[in-house]
């Protein structure tokens, strides 16, 4: 398959990443089928796309016509088979759990046309292990976007053990067509490149606070003003979802060893369902709208 053969992209999962990826694909002119497991989830994702396109138009980064045209290219689905019947590429962004993703790929393999490429937005899980569930491991790769997809430039394109070079080429071309910068990752190791470095940074910040050596406010101001990151590491954890970082760490801990042991502070937040911006509370409080505050 070549870039010009791609017309329709199905995005599985309308959450934080899924809706953002669908938005980016629609902005690039593709027909997008956005699917989640129930009407509420998929509608919520669609509403977030509408909000985000509105924000971009408000800031003159898009015209109103372009925003409306992008939204019109997004169709919503609950039935997985229907959502992939005409898909040239499926980008999967369902929760970061190996079992959930494997179940989705089993269903997807049975429903998708033979030519369809499967690209997973996993943050850390083995591409080869996921590809093994399907009968098309050569048409399977990682396509890892960053949060928020509409603002972040990088896309990691990750090869599994059996991914064909042609699949890497077309998915890299697709990332460029979406106005992103693809970086090819040829070793399928936990967390790939960015999360292998970034998620332990968030974890170490949490350990430093947990041990009483510092505070969230101190860490975040030094990260922003001295280390030069665009956000403090606790703000970033809230942005990506504390659960996402925690699941990445659990997997890295399991595969790579004790250096990646998740800090209990992260686990507590996950148990309390204070997952960051998406739940209104995380390390900061977002419920009053403007300006985050340390709870
Ligand atoms: N769509 C449209 N507008 C959005 C938006 C979206 N998805 N998200 C935020 N905005 C809006 C805000 O509402 C705000 O609007 P307002 O000015 O009207 O209040 C505005 O954007 C803020 O934008 P600014 O340009 O003023 O803010 P920043 O310059 O701080 O940029 C940022 C925001 C791009 C998110 C920047 O802080 C940043 O780069 N942060 C780091 C993010 C990062 O590192 N992400 C990667 C995390 S790792 C990951 O995702 C991998 C995963 O696998 C774990």
From TrEMBL:
All residue ranges annotated as the 3-hydroxyacyl-CoA dehydrogenase C-terminal domain in the record: 191-286
Family the entry assigns: Belongs to the enoyl-CoA hydratase/isomerase family.
Protein's UniProt name: enoyl-CoA hydratase
Native organism: Halogeometricum borinquense (strain ATCC 700274 / DSM 11551 / JCM 10706 / KCTC 4070 / PR3)
The 3-hydroxyacyl-CoA dehydrogenase NAD binding domain, residue ranges: 8-188
